[in-house]
Amino acid sequence: MRRSQARRRTVIGASAAAMAGAVALIGGLSAIGASADTRTVAYVCLPSAPATATASPGLTAALSGPVGATPSQAVTLTWTNQQPSGTEEIITAPTEIATTDRIVIVGDLVISGPGSSAKKTIQATATGTPGTAVPSGSAVPLPTLTAVITPTATGTVGVKADAFTLKVGPADGTPATWYDCSISTTATANTSPASLSIKVTPQATRTVYETVTAQVSETPEGGAATGGGAEAGPDGRVLVLTGSVLVLAAAGGGLLLRTRRRAVRH
After folding, report:
1. Overall pTM surpassing 0.90 (yes/no)
2. Could you tell me which residue, 184 or 265, shows the higher pLDDT?
3. Which residues contact 151 (CB under 8 A, 6 or more apart)?
C-alpha cells in the first residue's frame, strides 16, 4: 500500500513538473514572438487653452509589436505613455475631466524601411474615458495608442514613437487640443524615442509529396472472377437415371425374395 502511494506521488510530481515546463516553454515562445522597448523619454508639451502652462514630463514610453512578419501581413503596434509618479513635471488637467469626457491622443510613429529611402510618418490613435473624475491640477490619464502597418517588401522595418497631441472634450462634442507634445531637444538626457525593429521575411512554403500507385492496364484472360457461385456439379439427368435404376433393382429384388419363400412353403 505504501509503495503504491509512493508511486502515485512520484507520478503526480512528474506530471506537475512536466506541466510547469510546458507553461515555461509557452511563455518563452510568447516572449520570442513579441518585441518591446520601454524607456523614459523627456517631452515638452506646449499648452492650448484652457491649458496655460508648459509641461516637461519624463514619460515612460513603451512601444511594442511583433518580432517578425511576412509581406502583406497586417502588423499591430502598441504605444503607451505613463506619467511620472511625482507631482512635478507632469501633464496636468487645466480643468476637471468628467467621467464621461473623452481623452483623445493622436501620435506620430516614424516608419523606416525596408530600404534606406522608405521613410514615412503614420498616426496612432487612442480614445478613452477616465472612469472617475480627474480634478483640475491632477495628472491626465493617457490611453494606449494603436496603429496598424502592412509591410509590402522583405527587409527590416524600424518604428519610432515621436510627437503626440492630447485632446479632451465631452462625449457628444469635439475634443479640444490641450497639449502638443514633442521629444525635448534641450534636455540633457532621455531624448531617444522608444523604438523597435520588425524583420519582414518571405512566407515559408510547404512541399507536399504524394505517392501514386500504378494501375493494371491489361485485361486478364477468361471471365471475370466475381465469386458469385460454386463450381458446376453433375448433370441432373444422370441423377434421375441413377435413381430410377436403383428403384427398379429394389423392386426386382423384392419380387425374387417373395418367389423363393413361396417355393419353400410348397
Report:
1. no
2. 184
3. 69, 71, 72, 73, 75, 114, 157, 198, 200
